Amino acid sequence: NMPGVAKKPVTRKGGKQGGKPKKLSLKFVIDCTHPVEDGILDVADFEKFLNQRIKVDGKLNNLEKKVVVVRTKSKITVNSEIEFSKRYLKYLTKKYLKKNNL
Fold this sequence. Notes:
Elements: E1 4-10, E2 25-31, H1 33-37, H2 43-53, E3 67-72, E4 75-80, H3 86-99
Antiparallel strand pairs: 1-2, 2-4, 3-4
């Protein structure tokens, strides 16, 4: 059973700006409540795994301020200012589960 991943696109409303590109802001929430309650998953470890494994521009440990991983109790929020797919998060989640034989 995989934790649910919810995608919430956040758009910035801008007035009349002179042809300025719109700032991309994506927010993904990974809800790990049930696996944590069952004692299967360690959220802190999963957060650390995501921080180490997320690639930006094809490079590891290149998050800078473009991608931010935040943990709140048993939920992990991934905020991104660049193109970022939900499928990539699902891929990393499955990889983490496989690594820990879950």
